[in-house]
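Bench log. Compound arrived from synthesis this morning; before running ITC I wanted a structural hypothesis for how heme C sits in the protein. Inputs:
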Amino acid sequence: MKKQNTTYYICLFVAGIIFSSCAKDPKIIVEPDAYVLNVPSGFALPNIPDDNPLTAAKIALGKKLFYEKALSVDSTISCGTCHKQEFAFSDNVAITAGVEGRLGFRNAPTLTNIAWATEMLMDGGNPTLETQVYVPIETHFEMDFNMVLLVNRLNADAEYVDAFNNVFGSNPDPFGITRALAAFERTIISGNSRFDQYYYQGKTEVLNEQEINGMQLFFSPTLKCASCHTGYLFTDFTYQNNGFFADYSADSGRARITLLSEDVGKFKVPTLRNIALTGPYMHNGQINSLEEIIDSYSNGGSGHINQSELIQGFVLTAQEKENLILFLNTLTDNQFIHNPDLGED
Ligand code: HEC
Ligand code: HEC
């Protein structure tokens, strides 16, 4: 499937005047700050909220805040402490420590293509990237700070006062902090893995026979992986119990917010993009390898009462299992993890 490269100009709202709407001709300069979001081939345009149009200066401020340790009470932890670029904006430990070494109960998920997510967190308990910013800042075992004191701290820093005034026309405040961080997060886009080159860019030579066989298995009606890990995002954003564990009493997942017994053990289907880099796996980081994951799915799961009917087990030869893993490895996007626009300066 070949699709044209699509570059979209984001409409900008400047000084109360819309100078131009969604210009597609690159020769039209909308205004000096216009930010061109490079949407990969095969991807739809993500939804950008009307109150948070993308501009280059806002994204740069958001990036500075993402790597800013002053967001935590004792200035030791930034967003980037748990969401590391080298691990596709996840971490390589089961549970990353917050301030004073405090441990939470969930594995830091990848932020790959988070602009397309419909709800935030593994239980879906937070609606937008903007509102999600409050969660780590105020959680006891993450940054343990609060928005009011953070605003005061940033207002005491001349560099931030300048930057916020430049972007928002006002001093640092909760609106600007949440908008800038969300704007940066929307640029955490990965769509140039070898799989993408093969599937969306028509470069048929980049995958070998084993990887192609692994891809066919992944998309097959027997394995059903793509019934949940579907489309260019490799998730349908539904909440599912994939039968990995027999006991979800440590973290009931979606049931934490709905309080419904039928939601026990259901978690938002995670993307599989950059999966080779985002281990350890599952909501609790208790699964260490892709081999173990395929074994559990092929064994038909734990049989938990809420387990999805799609998890029914299947038989693979040793070679097919290896091929499926080789395919999952083609979802790694090396350009993404080395993109200087996303990394700490
Ligand atoms: C101490 C580690 C830690 C820090 C610091 C941290 N996060 Fe996270 N982040 C997590 C964990 C763990 C989750 C999963 C929590 C859940 O699902 O309940 C998460 C979830 C998220 C999500 C939701 C992802 C999804 O797929 O739903 C976003 C977005 C996010 N973090 C952004 C940020 C931003 C922005 C910051 C800084 C303001 C930050 N994080 C700081 C560990 C951290
Ligand atoms: C019924 C929906 C469903 C099906 C079918 C399914 N998965 Fe999953 N998958 C999930 C959910 C939900 C999670 C997260 C569970 C958790 O966090 O405890 C997950 C997690 C994973 C993870 C770990 C992701 C991470 O970041 O921790 C991998 C890898 C994975 N699945 C691969 C596969 C493969 C390969 C198949 C086909 C053999 C498959 N899945 C079939 C729903 C599904």
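What the model suggests: Confidence is low (pLDDT under 50) at residues 1-31. The pocket of heme C (ligand 1) is lined by residues 71, 77, 79, 81-83, 96, 98, 104, 106, 108-109, 111, 114, 117, 120-122, 129, 132-133, 136-137, 142-143, 181, 185 (CB under 6 Å).
ITC booked for Thursday regardless.
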